[in-house]
Amino acid sequence: MKKAYEGKEIKVYFDAEVCIHSGHCVKSLPTVFDVKKRPWIEADGAPVEDVMRVIDGCPSGALSYERREA
Length: 70
Ligand code: SF4
Hints:
Residues 5-66 form the Divergent 4Fe-4S mono-cluster domain. The model has no long low-confidence stretch (mean pLDDT 97). The chain is globular, with a radius of gyration of 11 Å. The protein has a single domain (2-67), classed as Alpha-Beta Plaits. It contains 2 helices and 3 strands, in the order ββααβ. The termini are far apart. The protein has 70 residues and is α+β, with helices and mostly antiparallel strands. Iron/sulfur cluster (SF4) binds next to helix 1. The site of iron/sulfur cluster has 12 residues, from helix 1.
């Protein structure tokens, strides 16, 4: 099941059942993806372009996003 993480400019979705734990997201953008924090995704933790780039690189498709209208 997907969970949503709301940011000001972007809404990030994560599906734990799909994640293969490659570590790509946490290594690429630790200010947004930090498993030690709750919630572990801080959608506003980096510029929105960086957040989208890292999500696009998720190898399993567990991460996705919806851009908010400005
Ligand atoms: S990049 Fe995707 S598959 Fe890799 S740990 Fe993050 S959510 Fe999971």
